[in-house]
Amino acid sequence: MNQPGVHSHLFRGSPSAVADACRGHGLACVQLTPSFPGLSFQEPGQITAERCRLVVEPFAAAGVTIACLSGYTCLMDPNLDRRHRGIIRLHALLRHCRDFNTCYLVTETGSLSPKSPWAPYPPNRSREAWTELRLIVADALRVATDHGATLLLKAECTHVLATVEDCTRLHEELDHPSLGFVMDPVNFLVESSPSELRVDLERVLERLGSCAPVVHAKDIHFEGGEVAMPRAGRGVLDYGHFFQLLRRYQPDAPVILEHLRPEEVGETKAYVERARS
After folding, report:
1. DSSP assignment, residue 149?
2. Cα 11–25–59 angle (5° rounding)?
3. Mean pLDDT throughout 198-226?
4. Helix segments in 25-147, DSSP class H
5. How many CB atoms lie within 10 A of CB 24?
6. CA–CA gap between residue 48 and residue 162 (Å, rounded)
7. Which of the 8 DSSP states describes residue 9?
8. Per-residue pLDDT for 1 more than 90?
9. How many CA atoms lie within 13 A of 160 on its CB side?
10. What percent of the chain has pLDDT over 90?
11. Partners of 181 in the beta sheet?
């Protein structure tokens, strides 16, 4: 059963307050952002087993599982000092991933653009960028393997890791059991169109479904040549068909709802549950 959850940072407050909010909305899981008032995990030295337990215990008591851990950083940050700091923190989170009661850690490659880690930039598609990305990911995978963690990369259309083809290529070239991906169908469909959406969705699941154990759920809407990404149920993606396909590959993958406000959780959760049934 693909249980719905949210990013923990959707709700404000202590771990206990966030866990209670999740339970109050009937959520089964969260993607945990390790940052709470008075309990930061920004510096590697702050990431200890004891501090991790302070975070996860309230969620366990509330019956909310940790689906995965957010370890977002720009792996390809053109500022090398900042990139290095981000990677060092990522490695620390991988070493303690199991202390957060999950084996999955989610991160992203970002863009080489000096303007923004989310900005399009032609050198992202270069051979040099791909070689560099492989080295960075391979190094992180060694840490993940040593500590029983799985690194999940989330593709974005403006990042170095941008497409389904990029994901399958990296998966084949590294051929590593500790590497996986986030199944965010909308991120792979931004170049699609309403008439092609169904076929393109099937292609995404066929190519990536078996190695993407976590789902990020938002919607897509095409209008006037522009692409919008509202919350699930407010666009044109057929989530009923998506869940039919997903069951072939990941029948138990948690579904993390995105692009919504706290007051929209109930309605969005209900939509996803109807589509899933």
Report:
1. -
2. 65
3. 95
4. 49-62, 80-95, 127-146
5. 12
6. 33
7. G
8. no
9. 28
10. 97
11. 153
**192-214: average pLDDT:** 96
pLDDT bucket at 223, cuts 50 / 70 / 90: confident
Alpha-carbon separation of residue 20 from 15, 64, 161, 198, 259 (angstroms): 8, 9, 36, 38, 21
| pLDDT averaged over every residue in the chain | 97
Structure tokens at 74: 């720009």
**Residue 257: enclosing H or E segment and its boundaries?**
strand 255-257
Cβ proximity of 248 and 205 under 8 Å: yes
Looking at residue 43, what is its pLDDT?
95
Cβ-contact 250, 213 below 8 angstroms:
yes
Does the domain at 4-194 match CATH 3.20.20.150? Answer given as yes
- 46 in helix, strand or coil? helix
pLDDT band at 224 (very low <50, low <70, confident <90, very high): confident
Select from 157, 199, 204 the least CA-distant residue to 183: 204
Q: Considering just the CA atoms, what is the radius of gyration of the chain in Å?
A: 18
